[in-house]
């Protein structure tokens, strides 16, 4: 990492090219609208499989990867890392095929009903044990949307309860399965991951580092700040920042950039997900800068992820400058419009 500064507040930062370890690119015309935003900043991304219908087989993952690469503008370099969507019926042989393909890098748990396009997800992890054993055997990471779906559990407690009800039994039964606790949002999850062994890691989004749940209700209800797991109290945000800047190898960057058309966000029953691919590194840099920890950004954004996934670190670099600019209020998405997080607002770092 290099920084340039006139004072002790650096005016720019250069780090090894980062990767995004949790990304939604969707399908069809949307891919071409959102992919350049990610490919400009990141060398690779773990591409989430919650399409309609979901990406449940290696053959579907290979075809989806081809559609992504076909939408990549000429001259841009980007490698999509594919993920299978686990169902109650995913056979262990599918894991072997995925491993042999060389393009599938993980399998994702969506507890049925937990989030966007999770209806085909897992009803009970006990049904998947043969498949999980195969993943453990071949070294295929298991990415988890870590929230219980029990309607009796308060929405703000669903992640913490997931640790006791799902994570602990899973880790007890499958101790050498690599698990990534995706988009953690609580002090409880940060602490659980920090204290776990080397088989457990976690992604953290920029918006969960920057905002607490007050943001959802500032001056009125603000649907563009609604995502799952939902933003939590300030004490949780502070715990996530502490984890990200701690120097621990277990925490890495995953934007969870999740595009939904404007009309479906600004709606009586609005979709969950924040679009941050447009200005992802700017937001992370802002979060680390606010914590006076710019020197920890490169490890979090560019080293910990590839190390966990046993992939090489990237070789190029990117630079961000301390400079104010206005995030566009809207951008096109296929035939629809997309409102980025912070749309119309001024932010203090700019990708060069
Ligand atoms: N994070 C979200 O709020 N939404 C994601 C799904 C997910 O990652 O849970 C989406 O696909 O829209
Ligand atoms: Zn999720
Ligand atoms: Zn996601």
From TrEMBL:
**InterPro entries in UniProt:** Amidohydro-rel, DHOdimr, Dihydroorotase_CS, Metal_Hydrolase
Q: Where does Zn(2+) 1 bind?
A: 22, 24, 108, 256
Is Signal there in the keyword field? Answer: no
The record's catalysed reaction(s) read:
(S)-dihydroorotate + H2O = N-carbamoyl-L-aspartate + H(+)
Cited Gene3D superfamilies: Metal-dependent hydrolases
The cofactor required is: Zn(2+)
> What is the protein name for this chain?
Dihydroorotase
Which species? Herminiimonas contaminans
Name of encoding gene: pyrC
């Amino acid at each position: 990492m290099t920084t340039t500064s006139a004072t002790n507040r650096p005016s720019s930062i250069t780090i090894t090219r980062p990767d995004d370890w949790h990304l939604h690119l969707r399908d069809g015309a949307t891919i071409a609208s959102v992919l350049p935003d990610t490919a400009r900043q990141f060398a690779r991304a773990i591409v989430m499989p919650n399409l309609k219908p979901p990406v449940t087989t290696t053959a579907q993952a290979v075809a989806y990867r081809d559609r992504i690469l076909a939408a990549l503008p000429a001259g841009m370099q980007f490698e999509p890392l594919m993920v299978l969507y686990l169902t109650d019926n995913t056979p262990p042989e599918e894991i072997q095929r995925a491993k042999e393909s060389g393009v599938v890098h993980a399998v994702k748990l969506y507890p049925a009903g937990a989030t966007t396009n999770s209806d085909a997800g897992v009803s009970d992890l006990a049904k998947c044990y043969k498949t999980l054993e195969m993943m453990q055997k071949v070294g295929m990471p298991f990415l988890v949307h870590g929230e219980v779906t029990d309607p009796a559990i308060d929405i703000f407690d669903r992640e913490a309860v997931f640790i006791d009800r799902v994570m602990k039994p899973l880790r007890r039964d499958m101790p050498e399965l690599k698990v990534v606790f995706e988009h953690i949002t609580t002090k409880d999850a940060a602490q659980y991951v920090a204290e776990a062994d080397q088989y457990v890691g976690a992604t953290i989004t920029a918006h969960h580092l920057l905002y607490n749940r007050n943001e959802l209700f500032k001056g009125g209800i603000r649907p563009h700040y609604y995502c799952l797991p939902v933003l939590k109290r300030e004490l949780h945000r502070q715990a996530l920042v502490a984890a990200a800047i701690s120097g621990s190898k277990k925490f890495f960057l995953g934007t969870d950039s999740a595009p939904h058309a404007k009309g479906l966000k600004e709606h009586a029953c609005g979709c969950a997900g924040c679009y941050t691919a447009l200005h992802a590194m700017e937001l992370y840099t802002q979060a680390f800068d606010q914590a006076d920890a710019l020197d920890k950004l490169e490890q979090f954004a560019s080293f910990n992820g590839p190390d966990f996934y046993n992939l090489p670190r990237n070789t190029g670099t990117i630079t961000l400058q301390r400079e104010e600019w206005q995030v566009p209020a809207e951008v096109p998405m296929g035939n629809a419009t997309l409102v980025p997080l912070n749309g119309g607002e001024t932010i203090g770092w700019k990708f060069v």
